[in-house]
Design brief:
Blueprint lengths: L6 H15 L5 E5 L6 H14 L3 E6 L18 E5 L1
Length: 84
């Protein structure tokens, strides 16, 4: 959640939903040019595992805000979903 400091609150809510019905919860990581480091993805995966999330999606955003005109030829469509 860009620009809002509620990271811990969001994960607390995710944990509550997981405790009710983990099969209905999906958490997505949106890969953007500013958020695409491997260590960030590892931290995300570890947080999902420790919270009990069993459905995870990783999606590449083709929109980069504040850059001007989007050149979609520079982006390779990429997404995947994993269920444990």
């Amino acid at each position: 959640m860009r620009g809002v400091d509620c990271f811990d609150i969001v994960w607390e809510n995710v944990a509550k939903y997981v405790s009710i019905n983990a099969d209905k919860v999906m958490v997505k990581y949106i890969v953007m040019p500013d958020y695409c480091e491997l260590h960030e993805l590892n931290v995300f995966a570890k947080r999902c595992a420790s919270t009990g999330v069993t459905n995870v999606g990783v999606i590449q955003s083709i929109i980069h805000y504040g850059v001007g005109v989007l050149d979609t030829k520079k982006f390779i469509p990429c997404s995947f979903f994993v269920s444990f």
